Amino acid sequence: MNDDFSDQPPLSRSAKKRAAKAIEELAATLATMAEADYRRLPLNGLIAEELQQARDIKSHGARKRQLKHLAGLLREDDESREQIETFIADLERGHRQNTAGFHRLEELREGLCDPGRCAETLEEIERTLQSVDTAKIHRLAKSVQNSADKRAFREIFRLLRDAESGQK
Questions:
Q1: pLDDT by residue, tens only, the chain of 168 residues
Q2: What is the pTM of this model?
Q3: Which CATH number is correct for 99-167, 1.10.357, 1.10.3470, 1.10.10, 1.10.60?
Q4: How is the chain split into domains, by residue range?
Q5: d(CA 19, CA 99)
């Protein structure tokens, strides 16, 4: 009879190295994270102190050593590491959603500025963004189409962004 509690084979050396490298990259991500995001991190205790110290260090060699130390602490504390990984995944998802929304608004603006697609895009905007002043957007789009007015081009985007944020 086998006394092992796990039926899984042990990790190969390469798999262990990849896992260790991933945790070191996580530590580096934490150290270079934007201050606003850093403040919201679900950290406490020794890991929080060591991370703050890593963020404060300016010397390349000392910072690298501190990040390796932090990675070691993260390897030992699975619960904290999982919380941090979840937090970072949520941040990245939010950034992707913001970027996708930004690209959608740019696409709408491009459609408005293209004479062949302007009417179709204006109808789509009326359906999806009810709070937008379509007459003003149409006037701005005509200005861009006729004279390549860069101010109007930027103003269209602002109006679309404000209308979209007003609906959320």
A1: 455 556 778 888 998 899 889 999 999 999 999 988 888 888 878 988 999 999 999 999 999 999 999 999 999 988 888 999 999 999 999 999 999 989 998 898 888 888 888 888 888 888 888 788 888 888 888 888 888 878 888 888 888 888 887 765
A2: 0.66
A3: 1.10.60
A4: 13-76, 99-167
A5: 29
